[in-house]
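Holo prediction — fe (ii) ion.
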Amino acid sequence: MPAFIQISDTHIVEKGRLVCGASDTNAALRNAVASINWRRPSLGKIDCAIVTGDLTDNGTAEEYAHFSEIMAELNLPWIAIPGNHDNREEMRTAFGSQDWMPDAGPIQWLRDFGPFAVLGLDTLLAEAHHGELSESGFTFIDTMLTDLAGKPLIVATHHPWLHCGIPEMDADNLRNGAIMMELLEQYPGDVRMMSGHVHRAVTGKVGNILCQIAPSTGHSVHRDQRENAKHALTLEAGAVTLYMWQEGSQSGLISDILPLTTFAEPVPFQ
Ligand SMILES: [Fe+2]
Ligand SMILES: [Fe+2]
């Protein structure tokens, strides 16, 4: 059955650097790649990895080269959309030879997995932390929703529309997400959103749409609901998310968060 692994918010920096002087995102992605490769034999067929933005921390050519170098070890092809920490043109230059990369405009694509499809959208707005879907993004999604004619669909964006309950992140979400949700609400098939940006595994419904936000391979955004809490990163264990289609009486998509830790061989139940 078709399946993919969502990797998000890898925030790669130049070799030897740490994000905020504390988070070794380069080591975290190397660990993620090793962990996915190690788990692969037990996961069945995986078609690809989908990277939902913030591939790099500063969007430089050096950082994209370093991202490529680490991802070359992954035993899976991968496709990506940009996040607010990316630079669209540097990303296009770095990955221009990939079949999913458009020659110009937003980095958006459709990947058909057979029983379902993933629509990757570009919500990067230069110089901003929050996201917006461009006019051509709306045209693209409109066309694709018509063409897909009700096929089960995941809409992938870096910026989520779902509020996660961390005020600083909710202020920097997909600002025109409400218009997109209206379009999705009219879709005749099963549709869900899959995003990144928050560096936490958060799930909720907006209207009828299931919205899933992915953990990062590296640091998390700290959840501290106390008043006057400082907006901060934490070095919680990173994770990736497995999405797989299952057939049978509950035919459809399921997801499973895979922590990027190592553990002993499974112990058979007695
Ligand atoms: Fe991020
Ligand atoms: Fe982000």
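READOUT: Residues 54, 83-85, 158, 197 surround fe (ii) ion (ligand 2) (CB under 6 Å).
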